[in-house]
Write a sequence for this structure.
């Protein structure tokens, strides 16, 4: 690789040719502020926060797009650059509704932090005090307030390039430019899949999740309710970031202790729901393979993906596994099996889940997700961020918590359940069970490393009981789209496909702790968080769902066998084609 | 100028749709086809109805968001049909400094719809235009092509009354 030698604030550094000034500065350990830049998908030089002085250029250059040249001297901290950045901040703030004390992003806002760092005490321009909120809240998961938008277009970039959903864009021009959806309709009317990736990258409080913590607090305060909680695999891999832990730290023990201190009557693990999903899904796969059912079978754990399929690839609906997501299975089991075991009327049980996902807020009110007496499987779901907020509000010193264990009634899980949180995890977990079911022999090697890692599309084939089983894994909807197009064109055939809505899977879900651009652009959150889960799996005594003592008990005492009538009633669901433009269709009707 | 979305019912015909689709099929593989397609759609329908934008998105594979973004970016595209009576107020430099902004506001108040939009019954539409080359008469308003010069807000109701009957 050709290398280029430059100096950043006097520090010599050698970087690959074609690097940007921003990348060279990072290599030298120097941070240049950015608001719009996102590695690979949003290098547009729009926000002007990264302007920097370099030799050979007439004026300041946008560091995020300006390439380095041999011998270039870069001064990121010149007075000229400082003054320009401060003026830019003032201009941005002149059109920003500042309610920092009550804003959901207070203390985690990139604009607020920069305004502080650059000592912006007053805004000389405009009349920001007169700005009114501009709220868009047509979905179950998201609130947009354009009065806090800085037009950085990061949300557009993820929606368009990573998710290929492209329901967020910029309309009009000049002062009227604003971020919105086609025809300025609400996101709920234009085919949004609720993945929440836009929320996770928003530098300010313009995009936030719908806050459901009040529903949980109310249930916890209600003496007539038996309130149980379940946590998704990916939550433990990221919750620590909210409390200053290093990215990729597994905080399962402390998370359990915190949930108990919040007052939940049962602290359970959706990992057990994941094990249950594997029991049902592996069985469904084996059945489809044996009986000539619709193949490839595609996973249905990710509600963002399921909605994407229903709206954009309805021809693949017959391929979707009929299994509910682990969350929904968990809820259904709480209101049936657990209610019976604990001797509690299902209608008095309030089921909460903590999820890395914003699409879960939409999923819990899908039709066909209420399996016991018409009661919703899940009563409320909160994101990892909302859980952190509850822990802070309750005054719990997270770092001082002891490590505790889940309650045994539904807290016992396997390594297979843990890795559900990373792309390829469901595939690997399913293979561990399906291969043993098909061969009747014990697997010698449990690690299906071919399907691990952050690549957008992964393929592998395995020789199982005399047949070649071909599998593929995709995460992020742009990758899913590419993979499904290949299948449609007949260029590839598979038996089983895992698709996750968010790039990297649930560890990088739209509900996970928000990391600023300065971290996100240089650390692979997907890989770091996934490591925590694979390490936990490797250290577990039982790593196959079908060997879980809890699963054995649940099937022996209650469900019968995978795919049984009762299992179908509780643990399976249905899908239907949905319009891409529901708003327009509704108007026509 | 707020280019607010269509408020009147879509009256497109199957023939119009077929014509648009034919044009898209001919041109969609060329680089930079979006602008000519949008121009064609406007030529066919007289404006860019939501329905036409959806057809363009479906046929070209370009996200609807992008189509809408372009349609709202350029002043040449209208998101609303023209009314039976078309009122235009010039906001070119000469007219503007002579007070055409106030004239436009009076028109908006009198008719009851925003500039760039149309009344729900389809009777009146209001446009704020760029210079129409009648600077000597500034500020200028046109109604169905009829030019009214040296306008004041006070003159607006009297002129519009004759079109309301």
């Amino acid at each position: 690789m050709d290398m280029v030698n430059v100096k950043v604030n006097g520090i010599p550094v050698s970087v690959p040719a074609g690097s940007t000034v921003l990348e060279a500065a990072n290599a030298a350990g120097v941070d240049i502020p950015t608001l719009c830049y996102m590695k690979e998908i949003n290098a547009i030089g729009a926000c002007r926060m990264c302007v920097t002085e370099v030799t050979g250029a007439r004026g300041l250059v946008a560091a995020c797009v300006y390439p380095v040249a041999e011998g270039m001297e870069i001064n990121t901290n010149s007075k000229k650059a400082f003054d320009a950045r401060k003026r830019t901040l003032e201009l941005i703030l002149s059109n920003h509704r500042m309610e920092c004390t009550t804003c959901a992003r207070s203390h985690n806002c990139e604009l607020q932090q920069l305004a502080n760092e650059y000592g912006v005490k007053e805004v000389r321009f405009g009349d920001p005090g007169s700005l009114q909120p501009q709220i868009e809240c047509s979905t179950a998961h998201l609130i947009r307030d354009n009065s806090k938008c800085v037009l950085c277009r990061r949300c557009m970039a993820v929606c368009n390039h990573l998710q290929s959903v492209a329901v967020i864009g910029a309309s009009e021009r000049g002062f009227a430019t604003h971020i919105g959806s086609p025809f300025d309709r609400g996101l709920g009317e234009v085919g949004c899949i609720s993945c929440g990736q836009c929320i996770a990258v928003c530098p300010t409080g313009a995009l936030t999740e719908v806050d459901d913590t009040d529903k949980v607090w109310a249930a916890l305060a209600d003496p007539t309710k038996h309130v149980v909680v379940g946590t998704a695999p990916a939550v433990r891999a990221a919750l620590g970031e909210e409390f200053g832990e290093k990215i990729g730290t597994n905080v399962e023990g402390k998370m359990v202790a915190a949930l108990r201190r919040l007052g939940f009557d049962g602290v359970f693990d959706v990992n057990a729901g994941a094990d249950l999903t594997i029991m049902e899904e592996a069985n469904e796969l084996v059945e489809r393979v044996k009986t000539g059912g619709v193949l490839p079978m595609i996973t249905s754990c990710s509600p963002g993906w399921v909605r994407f399929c229903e709206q954009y690839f309805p021809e693949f609906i017959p391929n979707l596994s009929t299994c509910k997501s682990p969350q929904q299975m968990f809820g259904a089991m709480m209101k049936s099996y657990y209610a019976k075991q604990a001797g509690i009327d299902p209608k008095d049980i309030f089921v909460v889940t903590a999820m890395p996902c914003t699409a879960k807020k939409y999923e819990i009110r899908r039709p066909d997700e209420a399996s016991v007496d018409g009661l919703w499987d899940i009563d409320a779901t909160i994101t990892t961020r909302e859980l952190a907020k509850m822990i802070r509000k309750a005054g719990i010193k997270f770092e001082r918590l002891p490590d505790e264990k889940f309650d045994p009634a539904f807290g016992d899980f396997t390594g297979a359940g843990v890795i559900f949180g990373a792309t390829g995890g469901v595939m690997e977990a399913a293979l561990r069970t399906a291969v043993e079911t098909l061969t009747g022999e014990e697997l010698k090697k449990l690690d299906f490393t071919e399907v691990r890692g952050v690549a957008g599309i992964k393929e592998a084939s395995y020789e199982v009981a005399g047949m070649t089983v071909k599998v593929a894994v995709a995460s992020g909807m742009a990758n899913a789209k590419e993979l499904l197009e290949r299948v449609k064109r007949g260029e590839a055939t598979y038996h089983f496909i895992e698709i996750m809505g968010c790039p990297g899977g649930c560890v990088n879900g739209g509900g996970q702790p928000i990391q600023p651009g300065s971290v996100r652009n240089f650390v692979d959150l997907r890989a770091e968080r996934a490591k925590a889960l694979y390490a936990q799996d490797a250290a577990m005594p039982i790593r196959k769902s079908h060997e879980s003592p809890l699963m054995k008990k649940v099937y022996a005492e209650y469900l019968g066998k995978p795919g049984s009538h009762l299992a179908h009633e509780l643990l399976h669901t249905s899908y239907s084609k949905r319009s891409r433009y529901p708003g327009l269709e509704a108007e026509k009707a | 100028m707020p280019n607010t979305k269509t408020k009147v019912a879509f009256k497109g015909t199957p023939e119009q749709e077929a014509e648009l689709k034919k044009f898209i099929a001919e041109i969609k593989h060329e680089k930079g086809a979006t602008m000519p397609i949008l121009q064609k759609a406007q030529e066919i329908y007289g404006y860019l109805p939501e329905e036409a934008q959806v057809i363009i998105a479906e046929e070209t594979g370009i996200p609807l968001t992008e189509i809408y973004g372009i349609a709202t970016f350029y002043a040449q595209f209208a998101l609303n049909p023209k009314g039976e009576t078309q009122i235009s107020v010039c906001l070119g430099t000469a007219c503007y400094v002579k007070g055409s902004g106030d004239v436009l506001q009076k028109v908006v108040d009198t008719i009851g719809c925003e500039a760039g939009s149309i009344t729900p019954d389809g009777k009146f539409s209001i446009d704020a235009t760029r210079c129409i080359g009648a600077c000597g008469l500034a500020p200028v308003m046109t109604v169905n092509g009829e030019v009214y010069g040296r306008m004041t807000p006070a003159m607006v109701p009297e002129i519009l009354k004759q079109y309301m009957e």
